[in-house]
Amino acid sequence: MTQGEIPILPLTEYTGVVRRWRGALAVIAALGAVIGTVLVALDRGTYTAEAVVQVRPIVSQSDEPNLDSNRQISAETEEAVAGSQRVAERALGLRVAAEQLGTTDLASSEVIDAARGIAVGPEEARRSSERLEVSILPDSQILVLTATGDDPETVSALAQSSAVAYLEFRRDEATIGNGESRQRLAAREAELVAELDALDDELGAVPADGVLAYAEVAKRQELTVIGTTFANLESLSVNPGVILTDAAVPTSPDGLPLAAGPLLGTLLGLVAGLTGVFVIDRTDDRLRSTGFDAGVLGVPLLGTAPVASRQAGIGGVFPVNTAGSDAYRRLQGTLLFNLDSLDRTVVLVAGVNDAAAATAVAANIGATAARAGRRTLVVGADLRNDALGRHLGVAEGSGLSDVILGDARLGESITPVDGVENLGVLQAGTRLDRPTSVLQSSAFGRLMAAVQADYDLVVVEVPPVLDVADAVDVAGLCDAAVVVAEAGAESRQEIIASVEQLKRVGSDIVGLIVADVG
């Protein structure tokens, strides 16, 4: 993969995330179902009722003779009026009057007349108006009054009474306006009559001239206009509008059915959970999907190696004809093919941070190769912790450190492994807290040359690369190296650092083995 190239994630990368987080996803989905059920249940107590009103033009309060009865209506203004405090007070009065009269007809004249004498508190009216919403249908003069609440009868009465109160408010305002116009016209008419009487007296006392005659004609014409205006006012009727749709009593609450709560909650919980776990998983640098991660790390993937769980203790190599031995047969085949093609027989097996997985892999690779007929030696070069011998079930005795220091002979220190023909083990021997001088000695080099001549395959187990520098010291005496990374425990950056350290001393990295701890 070239630098800057975006890796294409295989399907197993996504399914792996779901498997790893399946417990958390199940909890999140269950929590979402509970929350969804509660929210839908709480929302199901809300009822809605609507009354639809068509607003019609009413007469102008102008004193002009040509009354503008078809003037344009400002829908925004009417929307504000319908939702105003004064209309809310009237609507509440209508509901109180209807209740006192024992009727549901809020628009009846008896209810309207009775409501005029009912005093309504402004605070109560304000609370009532908060449950009413007024809207305008697009490009029309139609208002929709929508009432909401937890009781179907109450919301129906609120919407209907608000519609009736709004129209009665418009009717009263128009009637008051007409009355004021009549008063102004009557006052002007009286003034004109008085002025004409004065003109008649003046014309009778002096000869008529053009000025006085013109004034009399103008005033008489204005009287004629006033008379026409009075006639128009008498003929016009106030029609503020009509209720197109009465507010019906709702039969069911708004919102989703109760069964939708757990379904939607579970779905939303899963979506949120999957989003969260994928973000967490992608920001987690630990080794996950072997196929994807090995390509990104820039080292060949030799395969996945099963390793017994630490809780189960250290217990030897996998028996023949088991799933574990079959996995190592496939892994050993790939490894030996690479080694044979390069004519190499000594391979270093190193972990990244943890020695246990690398020890198990080294022991099982050696056992698998020996079962295949290769004369194999597994060397424990972790002189700080001799776990290899215990893993293969070999009794403690002299080992690598003892041979190098001259305290034991090589042939006497190599022990055959019971039950595995062609397999020998050279344990670490006496534990050394500071083995650097031993591992860098010429005696160790001569020992490695000797075992390489006597065996078809030599597997050298060393401490973790990032733990101590022992692996780097030993790598120069081996033909090739294999890095063992534990899935889910070690980060990509740590693996890269291990590979780079071995490469800096000239080690040829054959590939990466991912240890799958059961």
Helix fraction, binned, reads 40-55%
- Give the number of helices: 19
Low-confidence stretches: 1-8, 60-71, 310-314
According to CATH, what is the topology of the largest domain? Rossmann fold
Derived from helix and strand composition plus strand pairing, the structural class reads alpha/beta
Strand content: 5-15%
The figure for the number of domains is 3
* Beginning-to-end CA distance, first to last residue: 31 Å
Spatial strand arrangement across the major sheet: 5-12-11-6-10-7-9-8
Radius of gyration: 50 Å
- CATH level 4 superfamily of the largest domain: P-loop containing nucleotide triphosphate hydrolases
The tally of strands reads 12
Describe this structure in words.
The protein is an alpha/beta fold and 518 residues long. The chain folds into three domains: 11-44 and 255-282, no CATH class; 47-245; 287-517, Rossmann fold, CATH 3.40.50. Helices cover 52% and strands 14% of the residues. It has 19 helices and twelve strands. The strands form two sheets. Strands 5-12-11-6-10-7-9-8 form an eight-stranded mixed β-sheet, sandwiched between helices. It has a four-stranded antiparallel β-sheet with strand order 2-3-1-4. A hairpin with a 5-residue loop joins β2 and β3 (142-149). The radius of gyration is 50 Å and the shape is rod-shaped. The protein starts with 10 loop residues before the first helix and ends with a strand. The relative contact order is 0.11. The model is unreliable at 1-8, 60-71 and 310-314 (pLDDT under 50).
